[in-house]
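DATA SHEET
Item: assembly model
Revision: 1
Owner: S.N.
Input lines:
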Amino acid sequence: MAELTYRDAVARGIAQEMRRDPNLVFLGEDVAAAGGVFKTTVGLLEEFGPDRVRDTPISEQAILGAAAGAAMTGVPVIAEIMFSDFLAVCFDLVANEIAKLRYMTDGQVSVPIVIRTANGGGSRFGAQHSQSVENWCMMIPGLKVVAPSTATDVIGLLAASIRDPDPVVFFEHKSLMATKEDVPDGDIVDELGKARVVREGSDVTIVALALMVPRAVAAAERLGEQGISAEVIDARTLVPLDTGTILSSVERTGRLVTVEENPRLCGWGAEVASLVAHEVFWSLDAPIVRITTPHIPLPAADILEDETIPSVDRIVETVLGEWA
Amino acid sequence: MSISTDEGRYDYATRPVRAPRPEGDPGLDLRDETRLSLYTRLQELRQVEKRAYDLFMQNLVKGTSHLSLGMEAISAGFGEALRPDDYVFATYRGHAHTLSKGSSMDSVLAELLGRANGLMGGKGGSMHLSDADRGMMGSYAIIGAHLTLANGTAWSAQLRNSGQVTVCFFGDGTTNIGAFHEALNLAKVWNLPVVFVCENNLYMEYTPIDYITAVANPAADRASAYGLEPMIIDGNDVDVVYDTARKLLERARQGEGPSLVEAITYRSGGHSRADPAKYRPPAEVEAWKEYDPIIVYHQRLLDRGFSESTLTEISNRVADQVDRATAAAKAGAQPPLESIFTELWADGGSAWRS
């Protein structure tokens, strides 16, 4: 057991898997010599060499194309798209090629690729380097979607994503990079499609993802002081979605709140709300509440960005408001 | 040619004719069997495409179709030169390339008909023919992306030191999309074993390619920007295509990196099923009809001493094959409705919740 940052967990997870599988390769912009613009890939070039860890030009389509083509022949690939906003530059590859290759060919090929990308706000980067776009990928059949909130989960879910034979988009949150926790020694391998109950409670179920998880937990502590027992679930993977954990929690608490960093319309919480409304409707004691970033692009100034992304205060106030 | 503000700039059919420029028999040292194999391939691709057209007209094939009629020499020439384990990528106009890589006529025609015995069990259709076991890595219906995928299979071959080469076919219109440029740059930087083949049929769908391209030769004039040799060949001369393919494949196999070749050709018909191709000058269409790759090669083989009966025997044999394949395709069952939910994931299913 040793303390590790979320940032360093990325390199540890990749290295763990590259040691295990000599065929695994990794490519992206500034990932090799520079160790990544977020320093998440430091040391990989030195350990695994330039054949397996490759710097690319600023060519997001070429990056994902090379990754997917190699993957189609059975070579597992990790591809980094520096900021998740840049997925829009190569979305044809993401949405039309990688996601559909197996289905269109009726199973002739698999695409064992992990697209790692830095997601989310809080860095004052403005509208084109701050978005939470996990919902862009969640809506496309053929993509698995993962977004860890802790250093241990970064390693375990990255390993699970790499070992998964299907395409996975792996969202690393920029504002969690510096967070740290004690991480077990040795290999860590988790499982996709498993949410985690981070904090148990009996009055309300709060489902959150990535940066929203620690905020939901902090909000739950404060709600506890007000006599409201909140259960917090870290969804961890949006596809496959662990509906069992969410539905059974709501059956016990009778209330659902989602905390989403994505803008309002068609955020992942809408899908969770729809499932809960349909499948455990008679367990609900109150309307479902979605706490999201407003339906706007993100502003840059710190005071504006902080007001925009769901905060601990906003979660507490919203839940208390529903109780009134 | 630049677009002027003159009236009539969109009257494409009245523009100057771009006629073929035949150079005659290139006099290559090829074995008789090779020449007959090339002729057989031309006949196979032509007759299957004609059959596909007939099946469309009978409304047995739904959706759209993009035929390679008139352009068969390119896929035939490359098909003859490719190794069975080489990789091929094609566009939505990919029936010929799929057949050239060894897929059976039955499985291709059955896929067009949307039957269970089709290459992809009816899930792909005309624009997505794939046969991965034969190295046919797919037909792609959105311009550009498959050039980047071709880099990927080439990268894999390079990593595994397998000696496999990837050939990626695309049209002239593709040279104006970003992915083309990203793919060529990365292929060169990584010295990948990939051959990019631009089938320049002079029209980007319904628009003359030179009207909307900054340079006269859409692929070749871009080659130097990526450190590649500019190469333009007669795409209607199957000997020339075969010879080029042999050289470029060998070059890539020896680790000498990517290449880009522009093969000039012409569509006999429109862009797709819906297109009567009225935007082309009639004299141009006529000139290219006379320079049809099969007419050209048939005459060349006669000039080289092959008998008319040998060639007739080949075309008759292919006609029988196509008839039998059509019958087998038509006899195929409709795909089972359960297949809608299969093969999204590698586990064979499509579940999105755990």
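QC remark: The first strand of chain B starts at residue 87 and ends at 91.
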